[in-house]
Specification:
This protein has about 200 residues and is an alpha/beta fold. It has helices at about 1-20, 70-85, 100-110, 175-195; strands at about 55-60, 90-95, 115-125, 135-140, 145-155. It has a 5-stranded mixed β-sheet, with helices on both faces. Helix 2 (about 70-85) packs parallel to helix 4 (about 175-195).
């Protein structure tokens, strides 16, 4: 009996050991990695295209040869500047003080991109009244002050639009004359646009 009991104990122990060795520790499934959010691409700021063309327009309001109302100079400056703006994408600065020729040249040499437009009112040599005024203009290149273009616009010349010179100069009013001066300034602006070959349609 003891022998049988011993054998039974040995069998139980063997089975117990086998059962222990047969158990495998179940490993938990690996944890899925947390996805890292993809950073959004930073938009590259667009470069602002700067306009490389600009004009500075000034007039000799204190000419030693003639003395005209300041409104006359305002009219030619306004006319010229309006054409330069309408006929190009250029920035246009108009001086509100006297600019003689020497100052215009000095201004041009100090500029890096602005053309300097110098305007001067004078009287025709055969003038009988202020209706025979002549608008002179010179355009200086930036940095070098080289003359790009120049010329004259005559008040009694052909004007765009419906303005017609009064056949009797003595009856021409100051306001009417200022309108003619504005048209002369517009003609100068048109000529400057064409001389610089800006490739634009100048409205009339």
């Amino acid at each position: 009996m003891r022998y049988l009991a011993l054998i039974a104990v040995l069998v139980v122990c063997a089975l117990s050991v086998q059962a222990q060795s047969g158990r495998h520790q179940v490993k938990p499934p690996p944890v899925a990695p947390v996805p890292t959010p993809t950073p959004e691409a930073t938009p590259i700021p667009k470069k602002q295209v700067k306009n490389d063309l600009a004009f500075f327009v000034g007039a000799d309001r204190d000419s030693t040869y003639a003395s005209f109302p300041f409104t006359y100079y305002d009219a030619v400056l306004q006319g010229c500047a309006s054409r330069l703006r309408a006929g190009s994408s250029a920035d246009v600065e108009v001086s509100d003080h006297d600019v003689n020729r020497g100052e215009a040249i000095k201004k041009a040499k100090a500029e890096t991109k602005s053309y300097v437009v110098w305007l001067n009112l004078t009287v025709d040599t055969m003038a009988r009244s202020y209706d025979d005024l002549v608008l002179e203009y010179i355009v200086y290149a930036p940095e070098t002050a080289k003359v790009v273009t120049n010329g004259r616009s005559y008040l009694t010349g052909r004007r765009a639009g419906s303005v017609v010179v009064d056949p009797n100069p003595r009856r021409t009013s100051g306001l009417y004359r200022e309108e003619l001066l504005k048209r002369a300034g517009e003609e100068v602006g048109d000529r400057i646009i064409k001389s610089l070959h800006l490739d634009v349609q100048v409205p009339h």
